[in-house]
Design a protein that fits this description.
It is a single chain. This protein is mainly α. The chain has helices at about 10-15, 35-45, 55-65, 70-85, 90-95, 105-125, 125-145, 145-170. It starts with 8 loop residues before the first helix and ends with a helix.
């Protein structure tokens, strides 16, 4: 069963400490079973850190960039370009998230994609987005340097501890 991509209930019980759909998961965020044992072993002695910090900072930088007047201006220019090509989207994300019928791209989807690419090039959407996002990311990195150093320390510890565990198991 392990090679088929599906696990038997006994394997799931051993791995997770419960069988999804048949038992209530443990309240511990690391679960149970051997996965919890492995997590506990790997992280034994690891310095604590905010495990959500990097994701929070990424989300914050992205939200700030999306609301930035420079990005809004380039989105308006992109949207205007798309309208000149017969498509009505407020921004590139709206075009990317549009639903299309069927599994294969049809003529309308291909035409939209071609116009999107052309308008992105004409308006430099990607260049503006990356420049603005990078600026917000730098600000957040600088203002959270101490916390990020703690994340780096904890991850370095995990990697070194994992290497030690692997080398011990080979001995």
């Amino acid at each position: 069963a392990a090679n088929s991509g599906t696990n038997s209930p006994a394997e799931l019980q051993a791995l997770l400490g419960f069988v999804p759909g048949k038992q209530t998961p443990p309240t511990n965020p690391q679960g149970g079973g051997c996965s919890k044992t492995a997590f506990d072993t790997l992280n034994q002695g690891r310095p604590g850190f905010d495990e959500q910090l990097v994701g929070k900072l990424q989300d914050s930088a992205s939200a700030q960039a999306g609301a930035d007047s420079r990005v809004q201006a380039v989105y308006r220019a992109w949207s205007s370009c798309m309208k000149q090509n017969g498509f009505d989207y407020a921004n590139p994300q709206a075009a990317a998230n549009a639903s299309w019928p069927g599994k294969a791209a049809g003529p309308q989807e291909k035409a939209t994609a071609a116009a999107d690419l052309s308008c992105r090039k004409q308006t430099n959407v990607v260049g503006v987005w990356v420049a603005v996002l990078s600026g917000y990311e730098r600000e957040l990195i600088n203002s959270n340097a101490t916390k990020l150093a703690g994340v780096k320390t904890a991850i370095t510890y995990e990697l070194q501890h994992a290497a030690a565990i692997v080398s011990q198991s080979r001995a």
